[in-house]
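Q: What changes when FE2/S2 (inorganic) cluster is included in the input?
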Amino acid sequence: MTLAFSPAAEQRIDDLVKRYPDRQGALIPVLYVAQREFGYLTSEALALVARRLDLPETKVLTTATFYTMLRKRPVGRYHLQICHNVACYLRGSDELVAVAKKKLGIGMGETTPDKLFTLEGVECLAACGTAPALQVNEDYHEDMTPEQLERLIDELRAASRSGGGA
Amino acid sequence: MPVKQYNHLLRLGDGKDYRKLDVYRAAGGYKPLAKALELGADAVKAEVKAATVRGRGGAGFPAGVKWGFVPQDTDKPKFLVVNADEGEPGTFKDRYFLTHDPHRLIEGCIICSTALGISTCYIYIRGEFHEQIRTVEKAVAECYAAGILGKSVMGKPFQLDIFVHPGAGAYICGEETALLESLEGKPGQPRLKPPFPAVVGAFGCPTVINNVETLAAVPLIIEHGADWWNQLGVERDGGTRLVGISGHVKKPGLYELAVGSNLKQVIYEVAGGVLEDRPIKAVIPGGSSCPMLTPDELDIPMTFDALRDAGSMLGTAGIIVIAEGTCIVRCLQRISHFYAHESCGQCTPCREGTGWMSRIVDQLEAGHARQADLDMLLDIANEIGGNTICALGDAASMPVQSVVKKFRAELQAHVDHGGCPFEGQPLPRA
Ligand SMILES: Cc1cc2nc3c(=O)[nH]c(=O)nc-3n(C[C@H](O)[C@H](O)[C@H](O)COP(=O)(O)O)c2cc1C
Ligand code: SF4
Ligand code: FES
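A: The predicted holo structure follows.
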């Protein structure tokens, strides 16, 4: 089956393309649309974006590979991203990392076998005044203690069992 | 004199939801824009130039002077691009405007655009700021509906569109020319300058790039005048700015302070001093790229010029305080990893040098470094500085240079001890 955008995504892309004096300007926003549609950017998804924007596939690939938030691999349902930069380090981010690894039974950059959690260290989230900080998918959690992180992981697990989102 | 706190820019305390257009307007919002439209382009440009507002993105270039570089006699479209890629460790001020007061930024953008004859503005917001992207998009939509943006700005013969453009997780895109590449859908690799963006910027056209906080100051300057703004700060460095304090202080957070506030007082009075009342070991005064200061260097006014003369930088005014008992090598590890990870790889000295420095710092901490590595670390840092396309190379070398110079004995102890002398010592607790 060939990949296709949903009608809503098509409309969104039409709107995005109009914002820039040339089509490539819309590339990153459109790659986000594709990521939202398909979960992550497979080579089929990249080819689809290239066709849709009438850009060479190599250009699309070069851009997609440069940016970490344009994902070329799947992540778990909850993408736990703990800031490990200096301001968070000073306020105990190492303890958060240790607790997350232990509780999830995985290392940094890994995903739990049930595909629920992906754990990652990230750079400064611009939340240094409320450090240590982390993100779960699109949401910030700041001023975190190890206990709060354990509770958060429990809550996310429970939410997934009852079918809820992040 | 005690350090005074202001609420011209930072108005969290009053409990109002300034994200909403009617709330923003009820507090006087968009009156400065109306005033600017009455005054006319030349008067607005003159006022902003007189206000000595120095770029809040880190480099401190006067905004009014930058605006003056944009050619007025061109047939090409001109663009305003807002740098909301905030990512320099220690910096968390632009996030405040994007989260709580987006109209302040939008109003600044409209005043700038109408004064310079710009009809398209892009607000480039780092991708991690999902909530802020939604907030700013909502505020922009409200402006279109209210006739503040679109075919006519407040009934005047100006057309202006504002679009929010998401970043995608590359710190280097905060560098203005990398940001332009990214806006154009390319990898965020900085361009050689000249030409400067004012002449050849976004999509090959003249472009103004300003930081969020720089533009957020513009409505205040138009409302109260350049003289008012300037008397808040010091000569050639006017106004107030959002100072972020993080690390080992009792009251970390964001404060609005006059330019020129005393750094030591800011740490002890405003931020409540150091956790567990420990002595200070080091202070990073304006984001992680700034050379570290030692406790005897803190009695200094927070201005671009004073910090430069002291061998450091005011940068983004994001202060990170490091208490005694913390291992300076561990702090440097985080900083050096960061710059190595974020180097775009275009220039050999930066690509190779940042990785090399980071590995030596790791070896120091692990106890595998040899005596010669200390000198090598400094040599590499000195090699990078000034030999690269963009300032990330300098940003990576300056913290290293300052640590080798000011904390050499501690680095030596790591070599002699065959590892970290701080092993097992807890960080101070909040
Ligand atoms: C590596 C690097 C990262 C930067 N990151 C940012 C940033 O996140 N936000 C920002 O406003 N300026 C950043 N800058 C500075 C910009 O290049 C530019 O000076 C600034 O956006 C100009 O706006 P201003 O004059 O209003 O400060 C960065 C510079 C470098 C070299
Ligand atoms: S200095 Fe580093 S980040 Fe800047 S252009 Fe060169 S390689 Fe890229
Ligand atoms: S260092 Fe973690 S949010 Fe800035």
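Observations recorded in class: Residues A 83, 85-88, 124-128, 131, 133; B 89 surround FE2/S2 (inorganic) cluster (ligand 3) (CB under 6 Å).
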